[in-house]
Structure prediction request, 332 residues.
Amino acid sequence: MSVATRISAKSRSWFVDFVKDKELFVASILMIFVFSIAGTRFFTLDNIANILRSVSIGGILTLGLSFVMITGDFDLSFGSATGLLVVIEMIMLDQGVNMWLVFLVMIVLGLVWQFINAMLVVKVRMPAFIATIATWNMARGLIFWITKGKTFYGDYPDAFAFVGRENILVFLPTCAIIFAVLAFFAYMLGNHTKFGRHLYAVGGNPEAARYAGIDSDTVRILAFLMSGLAIGVSAIILGSELCCAPAGAGDAFQMQGIAAAYLGATVFKPGSVNIGGSILGSLLLVVIENGLVMMNVPFYYKYLIQGLIIVGAVSFITIKKRNSSIAIQSKI
Prediction:
């Protein structure tokens, strides 16, 4: 075999190993490549700033959702809960409450919201899907009760808009810095701490984790509280970005967060939701949406793509777990 042939074979082997179990991720990268060719303004500083700003809120919410999903639970209420907190946030600011106190209240309310979900799921033993779809409906009802279905406008301090609208270093949005910091700490917590190992242990087999001395209930509750922190921070950023409180403020992030978490489960730790994958999944989804806008594609294609990503990612995860189970059984 010639040297050129061996090099070619090694290159093909490397490519196959890289693509294997990462099909959705590779497809997303290819879409970005297409956008960069089709849109001349895709890689401009202004557009990069738009992408970073757009990914911050959904990305933070996806981080919180990922902690919950890693433990084997689920949450459908985080988008509406964020919208409800934005309404409360704008009302408090309009009443003259100190801005920093409002920010603190948002964090506390986010934690309280997810603590309620955690109690329903972990202690009452309600299925996570049923419990959080109930609280999702409650959040929607509270929003429409308070706003009467209208956008709430009010007075707020000029400094309030800095978090969601202003840039640092010319093109770097403040909210993107917040997302980057939270993403770093979430990644370290999920992948390099005892708590992170406990998260995956509980998600893999709660009973085995309990026999190993892990308090599964406490770990699951803490995972929900991490999501509550994400909801509070996201509400602060979203309120600052909008400077008003629309009745459907958080709805746009519901499917985006779910799709990003599942898309992230196709890389790094294929077959399971993971923090690193969720960060990358959030960025890829926003880049795809941005590229579609720049190509003048109708807005509703975004929802079609999100749906396809969820179907593809869940199918991938199901097949991956099934193949792993078959492989384990064949060795026994």
